[in-house]
Design brief:
Layout: H1 20-26, H2 45-50, H3 77-82, E1 113-116, E2 125-128, E3 135-140, E4 145-148, E5 151-158, E6 163-169, E7 178-184, H4 188-205
Antiparallel strand pairs: 1-2, 3-4, 3-7, 5-6
Length: about 210
């Protein structure tokens, strides 16, 4: 499906729907209705008259855009004197969520149903999210291997290529003194049992 770029000129974020004050000051008397409607909130004549309708989109929200930028915190002289280069105290970590608020969900574990309605010319698309067996193994300076859980924090749906990209992350503190990281599909229970046996054998030998 080719996206109708001709509707938006050189602005891939889409055409804005201005409020009444903006239209009065700009002299614009007519304005195209939004191509996307908010879920369970159809665009009505009253919305057209008031210009008060939610911003809707399927792409990421830019770091400098509202409402995301409002979560970034306060960077004033007090921050420079007491916090720099750390984040301000009123920084909201939800700022790192690039997806629109209505498209943010708890971490999926795999197997969740996905239904894509009205996003492909061949009709609705339905499938389940895949389950990932990928694991992160940390080798610490202390000599003890440690498995770190991975969470799927980003899902990217490409409706033209019909592909799904999953991004998984893990949080590791710098104080852990990690010497090596490995990604694999190990059997954790088996690996822990083997590690315990190796430690027991080393204790007997000593």
């Amino acid at each position: 499906m080719q996206f109708p770029w001709d509707r938006y000129g050189n602005w891939p974020a889409g055409m804005p729907f201005g409020d009444r004050r903006w239209r009065k000051q700009s002299g614009v008397r007519t304005h195209n209705a939004p191509c996307l409607e908010a879920y369970n909130q159809p665009f009505t004549a009253a919305d057209a008259a008031s210009g008060d309708y939610p911003v809707v989109g399927l792409g990421p929200v830019g770091r400098g855009w509202e409402p995301r930028i409002a979560l970034a915190g306060t960077y004033d002289d007090a921050w420079k004197q007491t916090r720099w280069p750390r984040l301000p105290e009123d920084f909201d970590f939800a700022y790192w969520n690039a997806a629109p608020a209505d498209q943010q969900i708890p971490y999926p574990s795999g197997g969740e149903p996905v239904v894509m309605l009205g996003l492909h010319p061949n009709g609705d698309i339905r499938f389940k999210l895949p389950k990932s067996d990928l694991k992160l193994l940390l080798h610490l300076k202390a000599g003890v291997p440690l498995f770190k859980p991975l969470v799927t924090d980003t899902l990217i749906f490409d409706m033209q290529a019909l592909t799904l990209t999953l991004v998984q992350r893990a949080l590791v503190t710098a104080r852990a003194e990690v010497t090596k990281m490995e990604l694999g599909t190990w059997n954790i229970a088996k690996a822990r049992a083997e590690n315990a046996q190796q430690m027991a054998d080393a204790s007997i030998s000593s």
